[in-house]
What does this fold into?
Amino acid sequence: MRLDHVGFAAGPEGLQATARTLAAQLGVRTIDGGPHPRFGTRNVVLPLSDGCYIEVVEVLDHPVAEKALFGRAVRERSDAGGGWFTWAVTVDDLDAYVDRLGEAAEEGVRRRPDGVELRWRQIGAPGLREDPQLPLLIEWSGPATQHPSAIALAGGTRLTGLTIAGQREHVRGWLGLEPEYVVDRLQFTWLPDGASTGLRAVTFETSRGPVEI
It folds into this structure.
């Protein structure tokens, strides 16, 4: 289990401009990701070190976006001005989580502009709107060289911390973590959930020093 990516909904300036702004802050490049035909969205990827990436997403003007939970969550966050809306953890055996949590897995697919097709399975989409402190759980198909972080520069910008409004033990229970489990090289800061929960800020280590967005 490891942090896979963090999701950022595009603001009113649009997908490409939002991605360029984030990339400039972090000293990374932007990579066109392509559409998610089953979710009604499309993305731009910002690769990071340590097998992680930022996914900047915008909703498409398509009927499927109104039906897919992922698309609806992106639209709501973008309509509110854009910003962080989810985080995702990659796991080796998604079926074990499906059995334990009783949530059906969704099939994800997108074709990159270079023609490479990426496929994965995930659970957690209902939580994007109902309990956004919980991460998506993802199991990728295909070789590691196809992972969106695979083209990150060695020793480049690294994600170092997440600030989440919510309850630490609730999230650990969702992930099925043992009490002694310790996350390596990633700092979690927990805020009182108040009226809403979810990802509030992300911290990075860049060549110019720490950056929090």
